[in-house]
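The data layer described in this paper is built around a simple, fixed record for each protein. Because each token names a local backbone shape, the row as a whole describes the fold. We quote a single record here, exactly as it is kept in our systems:

***
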Amino acid sequence: MKFPLLPALLVLSGVTITAASLPGQSSTPGAAIASEARLLTDLVVGDQLWTATSEQFEQKFRNLGLQWLSPTKEQARFFGNYAVWSPKLKVTEAIVDFQSGKLARVNLAMFTRGDSAVSLDSREAFEKRVEEIKADITGVLGVQPTERGKDSQSAVKAMGWMWVKPPTAYLLEYSYVKELKSRGQEFRPEFIRLRVAEIPKQQGLLAASQGTANGNTPVAKSSLAANVTRDANGDVVIKNVPMVDQGPKGYCAVATTERVFRYYGLNVDQHEMAQIANTSEGGGTSPTAMFEALEKIEGRMRVRVRAIQKWDFKEFTNMLDDYNREAKRNDKREIHLPSGGVIDIGDIYSSMDPASLKASRSEKNKSGYGKFQRSVLEMIERGVPIMWGVQLGLFKEGDLPQSGGGHMRLIIGYNPKTSELLYSDSWGAEHALKRMPMDEGFSMTTGMYYIEPMK
């Protein structure tokens, strides 16, 4: 990412990954989708739908591209070229939740700004598409919907319509950013989604909380430490942090935020956070923008948002001075900022010698490294995951969907025996728990933030 050389504007941004068009998607709203779109109708209809176990579900849907998002099989995902009921009702992503081993809820993304190739670039086109979907659902269910209006407890106050057809309740929700010419704000479509649950549990469709009966109330702060486990190998890990797969888009910051909210029992997804944080269509949200967006909804979601370490221009230049002294000692190329114009933060990090960076950060800056270690230990012991801004590509990490640039992930543990950091990326089950040396983790850090319940 390139930035003007102005301290106020110099922020580290998440790398932008262009969302690839999905095969078979139409560019015309409501148009018939290519025949290869796979139907997920069995996810949302049937008298025995809500008695299905995770094993029965896997047997039925494994050939449709089912991906489990956790080893415990509490959540599954379908991503790609899908539809429900008919090819007209396109689905880009389906998320399926299980509770106590039984199917509990299905979320179908019918349009999202980050994933959909369909263009809905005016309010008229967006609202027309909502009406088309509403009419199609009414037709297949054979019952009339009830207007839900705005959900004041959700992160973005999404609007919606509810259908009830035993044994299932269906909630169509949609959200957009209004055009405000006086502020130079253009219309922006955000999402259209269908949320499905069994009728006795339909309150969960209407509330912002999955795990409580008190609307948008998160779990108690005092209960979080019970999620911390200690393994014989020395690992101290926060368990029960849900996985989210951000897909091919650069939604790392908003996907990471969704995981934390869901860990606290709050039903906030990455598309809602993308709206709040103004995440670009191609993806990418700076840690600073994400932090400011979270501050806006602290009261509504009853959480506190705090920064352990923010990216700062002066600290960045001091870090660069320390690096250059170490690089000179190691006979490596020094790096200097241009006196004006534009600098590329990613280029600066990618030009660094990793060994010199690690030495200058963890060996020469002992107070900073000590604070980093203490912060990790304190937050993990409290059962609070850390939202961790990093620069990828500096140290070997194995296969990653993103090879370099700005990224956000979660710190979920540590190992005092091996001096390792335990972390998780929002790229699916295989990225749920990973580890790296603590000093390498500190060296690649660009920011650290956390969210916790108010009470």
Remarks:
- The longest strand covers residues 86-99.
- Residues 96 and 106 are 5 Å apart (CA to CA).
- The longest helix spans residues 123-141.
- The chain is about 25% helix and 30% strand.
